[in-house]
Amino acid sequence: MRRATDHKQGVVLLDTRDHTPEHEHSVHLKLAERLAQLLGTQVADPARPATHHDNFYFLPTETLIDPNHYRDMGITSAQDLFGGMVKAPYMATKAISHPLPANGRYPLGWTDEFARRASDALLSGYTVFSLEDAHRAAALLLRDGPLRIKPVRATAGRGQTVITSTTDVEQALAGLDERELAVWGLTLEENLTEVQTFSVGQALVAGILCSYYGTQQLTRDHAGEEIYGGSDLVLVRGDYDALLQLELDDPLRLAITQARTYEQAALQSFPGFIASRRNYDVARGLNSRDKPRSGVLEQSWRIGGASSAEILALQAFAADPALNRVRASTHEVFEEPDLPADSTIFYQGDDSELGRICKYARLRDYDHP
């Protein structure tokens, strides 16, 4: 049996999606190259099928589902991939961030144990797997104020709807694919205002673990929609305890603690769950009664918008064993950017779907603005 510390034969970009936009594919290839540098290997030919006899490192485009299938490719531990793997589809999405309504329908494998263990890290809300349950959950949440309906497979904040009335509910749920809903689920969550979203996470590659906190920025795409525009991170060598040793304000300390609670609940509740890249969006804002609320919105156990910063930081930690803290940021710009001198470009061009876009990252000393 091969050991997790054995030398990897190469890094394989494992695209499991039906369609990957060209700008994302370009970013993924550049990240694969940097992961290969960290592992002292090279990017492998994705056309060559991997078998259990091989010892590749994988960069999946999504959280992998079904450990039995990927075990045959040699993915058995967090040392084998940049991302994560779970047993059931709903485990890979924000669906786990809320419990079911009473007597709600649920897919095979669902457990309320996660919501109980993670309760201190969650906002008020429900996950549903049927239209009937969606209507019931919305009625319950509307008693306390506006709610937000969130498709669980959407990214970058797209597709979300703020609901203030039963009429809004009818419009938002009309046309949903009930088969998709039964497999993946839908979340309904208390709506917060004056929201600040923290990013909290960890990345482990080549035996180097870094933990981080940061904030997200929004930008507008060419259609004028406000979406994710990048993250500004502070990364430390080590685990969450090392991160909590920094001087932090109370809301940020709470966000890190909630992310860790959420992660521990997943590790305890989902057999077979592994992840080397773990990112959590934690929102702090005001509820309908203007009371501060904080909770994990969703997890990302896959390559994400902050991954270029994570990998640049891991490379810096690998290059300098005395380095224990850095600052890194990612940027997604839909106009011609004025690039800083220390920028590392991951994509710049005219994407056929998004139009002109530039994605770059920066790595700075911790004390550098």
TrEMBL record:
InterPro entries annotated for this entry? DUF3182
**What Pfam families does the record point to?**
DUF3182 (PF11379)
The lineage's top-level taxon is Bacteria
This protein's name:
DUF3182 domain-containing protein
Which organism is this protein's natural source? Pseudomonas alkylphenolica
